[in-house]
Amino acid sequence: MLSEALLANETIAGLVAAHPAAVVDGTTRFDEITLTIEPAEIIATLAYLKYHQGFERLSTVTAVDRYPLDPRFELVYHLQSIARNLRLRLRTSVATEIASATIVYAGADWYEREVFDLFGVVFTGHPNLKRIMMPDDWEGHPLRRDFPTHGFKYSYGEQQ
Amino acid sequence: MSETILSPAVHLESEAGTTRRMTLNMGPQHPSTHGVLRVVLELDGEFIEKARPEIGYLHTGIEKQCEALNWQQVITLTDRVDYLANLSNNLCYSLAVEKLLGLEIPPKAQWMRVLLAELTRIGSHLVWLGTHALDMGAMTMFFLTFREREELLRLFEMLSGQRLMTSYIRIGGLALDPPRGWEKLVRAFLADFPSKIDEYETLLNNNPIWLRRTKGIGVIPVEQMLDIGITGPVIRAAGIPLDARKMTPYSSYEKFDFAVPTSTDNDVYARYAVRVAEMRESLKIVQQAMDGMPEGPTRADAHRVVLPEREKMKTQMEALIYHFKIVTEGIAVPEGEVFQVVESPRGELGYYVVSDGTAKPLRVHMRTPSFGNLQGLPRLIEKRQIADAIAVMGSLDFVLGDCDR
Which of A39, A88, A142, B399 has its CA 20 to 30 A from that of A150? Predict the structure, then answer.
């Protein structure tokens, strides 16, 4: 649950009031606020923060593979408000898929493609969910913890 | 144009009606893409109807490799992310890990880091200015800017032994104390360089070709730029003073007096003007860092993290033991996560570092400015001519290594 100190923060208090089911947990460490969000509420949360709290920028979307935990993928959104000079981190755990943030922040496009490519998380509603870093015919998702760093296969299209 | 003289990369598609669209591959090897970038252009005559950047040609799996190396070994990979701003990347990663470790960095190391980050900014802007002008036909600029960049590379080599892949900023401070005589090189550069910037401006500011190719080119509404994730000099040239050095100061930047140049014109010329102004501001910071350089050690007093001095290692048993443990086991970083942002020459550079308490990172994600800026390319060049695309690509100043990691 959220601590008193976090609830005193007007951004978070506003978010909890507008979307009571969204925020699961929150922490502050190294002056960085992290909110754990219910996966189904992520788009509503992002939209609220963008349009009502002035977070104009989505800095990055990435994932952390917590294998062998289930659900294994932690999606991490870093938001910034330039006018208020604030940063906020949203975190949500998913097993395979989540709604795409591109309808709120156009800049989420490539970041989500990267997460899809390297982790295999599917973003529903993404306009162009294709591999971005790896070749189109690549098998597997390299940034997963169970994908070996060395000795798996060669690239350059060689058939082994 | 008859079908027979077309190169294999060019396809003509005649659609029903009178318009004929051509799909053209710009890149992956094209002089104006500054690296291995492919842009698929759908053309209507000279006009770009649709542009689709294809990246990933320089994807080297750096983020994956980070998970296989010890914390301190990752520094060498950060050099290779943005090879024109390696010290900014060294700095960002070191700051992130130092936050997790709770390390206090001595003032001299902080000052040196600021100085090096600013010299890196100048060096990177010099490469940008030279290649950008070269793309537009002003070949002389390339020779002039690389002449000055050579001085900077010589300095980096003197400090770290390497011209490009310096790995000079380490977790806990600097790799080595700066050698004797390095101040002389910096002072000479400081004395010399302002006149060199004037020289560049004399060549470009009133150059009619340069003005016609840059003024009013590549303009989109600033809200769209923010939405798509553009940062750095490009967004500052659109009137938004987004600069991590001012907004969330790191490494004692709050103690330096400098301005964040902005412009409201939002075109290719404004980006040029902002970057040139930034070089002058960086010089101011370097001057202040030189004048106010504190005395003291350049490495934090943390025997479990920072390698002991060579002399101590040879004479004291504890130092030898810690040296052995750091090299063989690595350093254990407490559990936690940090998103450290610095202002790289290209824009917002962020390292999202996650530790699970072991000697290797659980995850290192680099939020690189080139990736964000390049994402905005289609919006900037669609409905414009191919020649403008060259100007816009130059003005974004992306490094493909930075983009693809």
Answer: B399
